[in-house]
């Protein structure tokens, strides 16, 4: 069987540095892998070199270079994961998120249309739905109205609209994936879980916004990667899919669980004024019945996943102390 050519953007980032490894370990007989990243940070442990993986340094906003990569590599499928993602940064530098996420996505769409890609899969976020106001509110289905509440989620909602427009205008086949919060290896220490591990390891205060009452569902990155592969291979064309473990915790509970695993650090918890203010959404929760019908389910329980995660960062301390 001839291998399909799969191009992935953002392959030095958290999710897709793990995704690249999963594809190579489990799917090397099915896919020839191409990836690109602009390498905006030290990628030494993010990049995965393999004879079945062709890597390009490129900025997705550069139409000329993206066209050249598509012309040379001739991908059958594209998974677009390159994006600016941190809500805090989007509040202080929104223009960066618009150019990276909106313009960058349009550039990728243009190349997919020009070079006849069979399907483009775009990674969005659960944050496009807005915020749930209580613990009893029903989880979002894929049919819920999008209601982004910060520049990051607004930029991701915009990418979804651009993708649907390309389908209507040019017949580009697509899938949209809306995952919940991910955790696991190779996440940068500006995100909650590696930040807490770093603070506890170095005996520094753990900053918690407000009272830490915000609720998120946490999914191990490898479960998310498995879901992305499921949608790539089995997803109905031109549909969106939620991916979530449905394991919900408040932020303060997450911090306490990490301290429990590390057997120290509770005294380091420090509550600070929330810089996000009203932009800090209370709760996210996804209904995943749709992707479960394709045969996917979350496999990693948070208790096991967070223990593995802490162990990984302690063994790979360059990730949390490389600043």
Describe the structure.
The protein has 323 residues and is an alpha/beta fold. The protein folds into two domains: 4-182 and 217-246, Rossmann fold, CATH 3.40.50.720; 187-215 and 248-290 and 302-321, UDP-galactose 4-epimerase, domain 1 (Alpha-Beta Complex), CATH 3.90.25. It contains eleven helices and twelve strands. It is globular, with a radius of gyration of 19 Å.
Secondary structure layout:
Elements lengths: L3 E6 L4 H14 L3 E7 L15 E5 L5 H11 L3 E4 L6 H6 L1 H21 L4 E5 L27 H20 L3 E6 L1 E3 L8 H10 L4 E4 L5 E6 H14 L4 E5 L4 E3 H12 L6 E4 L16 H4 L9 H14 L2 H4 L2
Parallel strand pairs: 1-2, 1-4, 2-3, 4-5, 5-6, 6-10, 7-9, 8-12
Antiparallel strand pairs: 9-11
Which terms summarize this structure?
single chain; 323 residues; alpha/beta; Rossmann fold; UDP-galactose 4-epimerase, domain 1; 2 domains; seven-stranded parallel β-sheet; three-stranded mixed β-sheet; 11 helices; 12 strands; globular
Order of strands in the sheet with the most strands? Answer: 3-2-1-4-5-6-10
Helix content: 40-55%
* CATH-defined superfamily of the largest domain: NAD(P)-binding Rossmann-like Domain
CATH architecture of the largest domain: 3-Layer(aba) Sandwich
- Largest sheet properties: 7 strands, parallel
> Which percent range describes the beta-strand content?
15-25%
What's the overall average pLDDT, rounded? 93
Q: What is the gist of this entry?
A:
It contains eleven helices and twelve strands.
């Amino acid at each position: 069987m001839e291998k399909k050519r799969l191009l992935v953007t953002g392959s030095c980032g958290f999710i897709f540095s793990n995704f690249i490894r999963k594809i190579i370990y489990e799917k090397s007989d099915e896919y020839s892998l191409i990836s690109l990243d602009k390498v905006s940070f030290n990628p030494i442990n993010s990049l995965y070199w393999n004879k079945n993986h062709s890597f390009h340094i490129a900025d997705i906003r550069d139409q000329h270079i993206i066209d050249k990569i598509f012309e040379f590599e001739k991908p059958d499928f594209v998974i677009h994961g390159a994006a600016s993602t941190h809500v805090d940064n989007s509040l202080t530098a929104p223009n960066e998120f618009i150019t990276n996420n909106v313009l960058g996505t349009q550039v990728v769409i243009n190349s997919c249309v020009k070079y006849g890609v069979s399907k483009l899969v775009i990674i969005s976020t659960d944050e496009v739905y807005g915020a749930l106001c209580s613990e009893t509110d029903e989880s979002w289905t894929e049919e819920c109205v999008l209601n982004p509440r910060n520049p990051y989620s607004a930029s991701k909602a915009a990418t979804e609209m651009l993708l649907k427009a390309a389908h209507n205008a040019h017949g580009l086949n697509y899938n949209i994936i809306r995952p919940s919060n991910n955790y696991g290896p190779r996440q940068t220490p500006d995100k909650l879980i590696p930040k807490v591990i770093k603070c506890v390891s170095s005996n520094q205060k753990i900053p918690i916004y407000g009272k830490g009452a915000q609720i998120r569902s946490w999914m191990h990155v490898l479960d998310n990667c498995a879901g992305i592969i499921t949608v790539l291979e089995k997803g109905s064309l031109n549909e969106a899919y939620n991916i979530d473990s449905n394991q919900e915790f408040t932020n303060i509970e997450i911090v306490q669980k990490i301290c429990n695993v590390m057997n120290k650090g509770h005294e380091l918890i420090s509550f600070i004024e929330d810089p996000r203010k009203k932009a800090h959404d209370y709760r996210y929760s996804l209904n995943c019945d749709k992707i479960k019908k394709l045969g996917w389910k979350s496999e990693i329980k948070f208790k096991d996943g967070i223990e593995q995660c802490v162990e990984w960062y302690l063994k790979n301390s360059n990730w949390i102390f490389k600043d």
